[in-house]
Amino acid sequence: MAKKYQVFISSTFDDLKEHRDAVVKAVLQLGHLPVGMEMFNAGDQTQWETIKSYIDSSDYYLVILAHRYGSKDPASGLSYTEKEYDYAGEKGVPRLGFVIDKTATWPADKVEAKAKKKLDDFKRKVGSARVIKFWDTVDKLAYHVSLSLGNEITINPRVGWVRATEAASPQVAEELARLSKENMQLQIQLTKVGHDNPIRSLEALININAIRVSFDIEDELTLRDIFEMSCDLSPDTTAFGIANKVQLEYSLNDDQWYEFLDDANEALEELQRLGLVKNLDYVLKQKFSKEGNSMHQVKQWEITEKGTQLYALIKYTKRVNKEN
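RE: above sequence
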């Protein structure tokens, strides 16, 4: 059965019309059902009840934040966007945050200076969540939504929706229950003989996830490529080192190297969300080039226990395939 997920999109209104349109399009391109607060007048209590009902029936919740806090609920003093965010958390709906980068250019007439403290507090709240991405353009926002939502659906599937004509009959439901019970028993048996299905699932996930690169290559780079480079560099894993390896592999010029450094950082953040690496601290690295040498402060990463298990599985699989 083709399952579709309902995705609730929350943001302020006038300042983010173009951005929200791009996010709606990204969700539709993934084959899912976007629903947003622009359909309602959140200031009306009856409409607020309607919004809550839509969040209740949604599988995932996305919030987009720029430089406006938005209209407030007189009773709580919170913006309706923050109320929606809190309510989704209370209901256990997975929340994905997309916050404008501090360095992004932004029109002055779309900045709400009076509510800056409340907005900063809200951004910190969103920043403490499991999934958060920073964007500076409409295209990058849409890219992050596609990648993050796709990954979230893969690792955290929800109830979703199916066509009534595809819904299971009682007989089919009974058969599915029986198969589910058998599958659970098999999972227990596999665990007893040492198979690590979650690790294999992660291997499949990073295999199919291509990362965005700013230069043309014949074969796409995947999260697995970045993960293997990370392990090869350990214990000195940095986006800087990964960019150097890619520069050697694909003969990048210095401009392409600098652009890919951002791509490598984004990939490492995805690997961190999957529990394969974790951030340690910032270190200084020196970049050598024809134009002169330069120092860079970059994040250093550590391979987690889960990451070590996955890397061991990858090396084992490669060795078996080579021997065969």
